[in-house]
């Protein structure tokens, strides 16, 4: 049975003499997209910028509601996503949770983007 | 009338002797988040990787459906988002639309991420 063959060949001939290919696998693309999705929110960007800029190295969740102008449940929701995606680590101190930057986390995203851009951007 | 004062002062004393601050403005955070959101999809990551890796410099939309295993309306939808976010440029050649990388677009995201990370990551 070779009935379908000519159709496929014609498609390729029409506009893909050298069919383009992705420089990253579908699985890797899904991972990169998930990491970027964790970052792709204004409140999470601001949370990261506050925590990465902190001189103390760790910021109490109680200090994050006021600069963002958001309630604690909302802030905690965003922090949970950033911890799950590997950008922040969480430590309990008494009543409060403290959040610290994970070293190298933003650099990993930069490296992911370079791999999307291909050898010229690596 | 100074009734509310003591409460605010107490809040600050409890856990923000030096209130943390964001290294980027709310407006800038919204812009960065929007750019990342345009990237944060597995199909769009693969489209970018194919188009950035192309030796021809421009890829026909007709060549993008097969490697992604998606229909042309879906591929066109994703391409539109990538053009709007400044990652790709679009050119009509006869029947087909061709898409090219916008030089420096991925580097701008890297630079945005560095600004989120603060001076230590800049």
The biggest chain-chain interface is:
A-B, 58 and 58 residues
Q: Major sheet of chain A: size, sense and barrel closure? A: 3 strands, antiparallel
Strand order within the widest beta sheet of chain A: 1-3-2
At the fourth level of CATH, the homologous superfamily of chain A is Winged helix-like DNA-binding domain superfamily/Winged helix DNA-binding domain
Oligomer: homodimer
Helix content of chain A: 40-55%
**Number of helical runs of chain A?**
6
State the distance separating the first and last CA atoms of chain A: 45 Å
Quickly give the structural class of chain A: mainly alpha
Q: What is the mean pLDDT of chain A? A: 85
Helices and strands of chain A, in order, run as HHHEHHEEH
Under CATH, the topology of chain A can be stated as Arc Repressor Mutant, subunit A
GO molecular function (chains A, B): DNA binding; DNA-binding transcription factor activity
Domain HTH arsR-type (chains A, B): 24-121
Protein name (chains A, B): ArsR family transcriptional regulator
InterPro entries (chains A, B): ArsR-like_HTH, HTH_ArsR_DNA-bd_dom, HTH_MetalResp_TranReg, WH-like_DNA-bd_sf, WH_DNA-bd_sf
What is the strand and helix layout of this fold?
Two copies of one chain form a homodimer.
Chain A: H1 5-15, H2 26-39, H3 42-53, E1 59-60, H4 65-68, H5 72-84, E2 88-93, E3 96-101, H6 105-117
Antiparallel strand pairs in A: 1-3, 2-3
């Amino acid at each position: 049975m070779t009935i379908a063959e000519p159709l496929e060949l014609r498609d390729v001939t029409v506009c893909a003499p050298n069919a383009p290919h992705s420089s990253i696998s579908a699985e890797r693309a899904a991972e990169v997209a998930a990491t970027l999705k964790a970052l792709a929110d204004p409140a999470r960007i601001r949370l990261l910028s506050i925590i990465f800029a902190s001189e103390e190295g760790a910021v109490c969740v109680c200090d994050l509601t006021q600069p963002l102008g958001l309630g604690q449940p909302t802030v905690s929701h965003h922090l949970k996503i950033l911890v799950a995606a590997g950008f922040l680590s969480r430590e309990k101190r008494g009543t409060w949770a403290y959040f610290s930057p994970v070293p190298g986390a933003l650099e990993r995203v930069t490296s992911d983007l370079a791999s999307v851009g291909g050898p010229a951007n690596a």
